[in-house]
Amino acid sequence: MNNKFLELRDVLSKNGFIVKTFNNISEAKEELLSEIKKEESIGIGGSMTIQDMDIYDDLKDRGNEIYWHWRKDVENAAVKAINADTYIASTNALTMDGKLVNMDGTGNRVASMIYGHKDVYIVVGKNKICKDYDEASERIKNIAAPMNAKRLNLSTPCTHTGKCIDCDSPQRICRSEVIVHKKPGGTNIHIYLVDEELGY
Which residue, 65, 115, 144, 173, is most buried by CB atoms nearer than 10 A? Predict the structure, then answer.
């Protein structure tokens, strides 16, 4: 297991998060399926990590009520996800002092990560672990944001340069930054640290 994970697990636990470590995404998926009850409704935030986990169909097939705006089988899924019992997402960056750093375009993902659900599961690959906030911010500006903008076929400067210039583009996706320092009250936040590179 990655030594950083062991150090980070202790720091995150002190910050009130429930932390588990996994060798690969398959182990994390198996644990997540066992943790979430079949009668629970589930919202999913936009995430390449969760898409790579390939858990949506497993949850749906066993009978969970599930809302993910990346899938078109439920109308107004992003709105309905807000009221789900459980929320699943990833984070743009995770610092070694135990902070979750996220940038969002619409705000639905970052809002649901901190409020409104009984349980929130954050799945994090080793590529998203950063030394501190400054490194996390750089990661978001020059890796996560440009790659997501390119994935969405947006016409923002970062899709051409690969770097953030703090643009004023109407299609800008960097609009709301949320930093979670400690576990918010009223929500159990489970952080799954996976020893693989996942998502952007």
Answer: 144
